[in-house]
Amino acid sequence: MHEMALTESLVALVEEAASETGFHQARTVVVEIGTLSAVDPEAIRFCFDAVSRGTVAEGARLEIRLIPGSGWCLGCGKMVPLTERFGACPDCGGSHVQMCAGDELRLKEVEIG
Amino acid sequence: MCTVCGCGETTGSPHSHGHAHGSHDHPPLQDHGHSHDHDHDHPHPPEIEGALGAVHLPGLAPERIVRIERDILSRNNAHAAANRARLASAGQFSLNLMSSPGAGKTTLLVRLIEELGGRLPLAVIEGDQQTAHDAERIRATGVPAVQINTGKGCHLDAHAVGHALDELTLEPGGALMIENVGNLVCPAGFDLGETRRVVLLSVTEGEDKPLKYPDIFAFADLLLVTKSDLLPHLEFDLAGCVANARRVNPRLRVLVVSARDGTGLAPLADWVRAEASLAAATAQAIAPR
What we know:
The structure holds 2 protein chains of 2 kinds. Chain A is of the alpha+beta class. Chain A has helices spanning 2-21, 41-51, and strands at 26-34, 61-67, 69-73, 78-82, 97-101, 105-112. Helices cover 27% and strands 35% of the residues of chain A. Chain A has a 3-stranded mixed sheet, with helices on one face. A 3-stranded antiparallel sheet of chain A has the order 4-3-5, with no helix packed on it. Chain A starts with a helix and ends with a strand. The model of chain A has no long low-confidence stretch (mean pLDDT 93). By secondary structure, chain B is α/β, with parallel strands linked by helices. Chain B has one domain (75-286): 3-Layer(aba) Sandwich (Rossmann fold). Chain B is built from 9 helices and 8 strands. A 7-stranded parallel sheet of chain B has the order 4-3-5-2-6-7-8, with helices on both faces. In chain B, helix 4 links the parallel strand 3 and strand 4 (145-149). In chain B, helix 2 (74-89) runs parallel beside helix 5 and helix 3 crosses helix 9. The longest helix of chain B has 22 residues, at 265-286. Chain B is globular and about 60 Å long. Chains A and B meet through helix 1 and strand 6 of A and helix 1, strand 1, helix 2 and helix 7 of B.
């Protein structure tokens, strides 16, 4: 359940943004999570309700944008979709694929009321 | 004191701020002298308009967007960078040992300490959810050890390690061994500021572990295949295991070891000595004169 620690970091980033820009209540917290990251989005959602209590993020809607995996296949010389982290190229079957997207774990923005 | 978030003992005035904790409880040795609430009562109208560039037009909903674009691990990474700088300037080589529970981290560590034979200054940080058993096992060898109990936490984070460093006297040219919480998943995302990451996989676990739990093998520099003395009793495909691990991480170095019969301990100790010597030489060369 490292999602609890990650959610604590997420809420701390929202609190930091609140103190930097002076808002008091987040309405929506938008995060990007790559589908190949070692994170379960539903676990983040579960933790968010508990961790955000008593913070500027309490009661805020958590919007999770899933980023699909993709990588650059050295064999094909092009971008290919990836469904597992160290997966092979779906076209040539080669394993020399450099992951380019899918391991995101980012606080994107906060909508304030 | 923690230079990243400012927590810990401080000579400054009491203050409030938010900072990232992993889900660890602070060990009793770390008494915070301040609160963590972060509610303001005072408005910041000029900043909010300036920072957001937002104009409230009549008839439009007042929602505004604060763009942040920050990695959720950025706070841990800042603590890790501080630890790394601190260890580098102290001329310390440091290891982060990771594995599933029961792969033999503590036993191997005790045997490695014996193999190093007291010639290298050593220190150990032990991470477990509960108990100080592992730190006690290390202290029995004469090496100083700090236990971090993570409570419900499933991994060590850089913040907790930074506080544990406060409790240790690090001698230049020495090696710091950090034994992570037994877990093949969660430690993979959390940089502690270590020089090298070592993942242990015991031969009783199955050769497909690197494919089932790829992140930690991709994160590591060295794979130690442990309990090799059991190989004659098992159907463990050692070559297949190494091939699986290298599929995930082509640069992964591999050593087969046994704490029981001593296989691989001499080259492991040689590697630690060489790395420690390098860390000390680098620190000495770049130290301000």
